[in-house]
Design the sequence.
């Protein structure tokens, strides 16, 4: 039987043609396709400014720089995420402070965030885990009460909505990833969006070594002069990647709809038994279902069983504060975030991506339920 991955990109001939057109053009990087992709994502999300970069991790780092996070500054973040959500704070020599998650959704718990605020806290990073938006009204209330910046790590949630507002407009800065298993892909790539022109300007310079103009801008102006005003990085993304992104974006709503259809199929299959329990989804959100995560008490046994049947189950994630680096450098460990720690022992990610067939879903459900019965 062919291996069924937990996630996979979907690329067609239209996408390929868009990239080939760029390869025949004069600009392979820092050219017009980058600006067009930024504009396309802003038009889709409703954000005013977009800054495309080389990865979701680069986007997170860029956000921390733009907010002025520096040595000793604390940033509150969830442990139930990929390590990049916390690592970006370290890149600016800040201090990640882990707040626990809600047991039903595994999203950042606003009450835990409130309890974690200290005089050194500068920002909150919420992660739209698996594709479900955080409780952004509650997080905004905490942020405003304490004068904190609010960042949406929306790398799982492009296409999601919260109370009829699109992800990308719910925080001071929102971050997207375009890795191949995400909703749309540029191969590798990311973007930061904001409504704040000052933050956007800082981020644009940061992605290009801290230099205030790009080569294409200087070409248009017939000028050569540039200055470096900050210590930035080479976080640029290519034009052919952005051409792929713009092409993929046109199919996003259909893909999110298919992800929801598959998620409903899973939910129906698991509705009449207690061993496999999907995460709770709030009625006021449109879930983007980057991941379909369930809880099962014999997670490792179920994982091995699915893998033995060529089904690409996965686990998202080991809580960040339990990774060896964080244990050694920050003396984190068990007991800091008990809800996330308990969930980690049970969570299992099942295959879900738009190109999956209904028969694939039925196979996963039958295999898992048969093992769990």
Sequence:
């Amino acid at each position: 039987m062919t291996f069924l991955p937990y996630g996979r990109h979907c690329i067609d001939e239209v996408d390929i043609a868009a990239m080939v057109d760029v390869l025949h053009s004069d600009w392979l990087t820092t050219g017009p396709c980058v600006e067009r992709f930024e504009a396309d994502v802003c038009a889709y999300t409703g954000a005013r400014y977009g800054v495309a970069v080389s990865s979701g991790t680069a986007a997170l780092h860029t956000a921390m720089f733009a907010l002025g996070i520096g040595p000793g500054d604390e940033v509150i973040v969830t442990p139930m995420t990929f390590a990049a959500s916390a690592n970006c704070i370290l890149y600016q020599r800040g201090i990640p402070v882990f707040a626990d998650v809600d047991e039903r959704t595994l999203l950042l718990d606003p009450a835990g965030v409130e309890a974690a605020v200290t005089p050194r806290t500068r920002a909150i990073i919420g992660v739209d885990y698996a594709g479900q938006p955080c409780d952004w009204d509650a997080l905004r209330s905490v942020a405003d009460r304490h004068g904190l910046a609010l960042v949406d790590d929306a790398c799982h949630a492009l296409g999601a909505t919260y109370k009829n507002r699109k992800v990308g407009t719910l925080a001071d800065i929102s971050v997207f990833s375009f890795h191949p298993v995400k909703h749309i892909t540029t191969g590798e790539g990311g973007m930061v969006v904001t409504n704040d022109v000052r933050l956007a300007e800082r981020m644009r310079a940061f992605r290009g070594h801290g230099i205030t103009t790009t080569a294409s801008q200087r070409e248009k102006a017939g000028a050569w002069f540039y200055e470096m005003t900050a210590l930035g990085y080479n976080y640029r993304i290519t034009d052919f990647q952005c051409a792929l992104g713009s092409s993929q974006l046109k199919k996003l709503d259909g893909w999110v709809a298919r992800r929801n259809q598959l998620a409903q199929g899973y939910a129906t299959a698991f509705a009449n038994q207690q061993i496999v329990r999907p995460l709770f989804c709030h009625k006021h959100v449109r879930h983007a279902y980057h991941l379909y995560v369930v809880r099962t008490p014999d997670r490792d046994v179920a994982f091995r069983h699915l893998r033995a049947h060529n089904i690409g189950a996965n686990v998202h994630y080991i809580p960040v504060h339990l990774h060896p680096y964080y244990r050694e450098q920050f003396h984190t460990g068990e007991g800091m975030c008990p809800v996330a720690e308990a969930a980690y022992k049970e969570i299992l990610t099942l295959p879900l991506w738009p190109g999956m067939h209904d028969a694939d879903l039925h196979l996963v459900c039958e295999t898992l339920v048969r093992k769990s019965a």
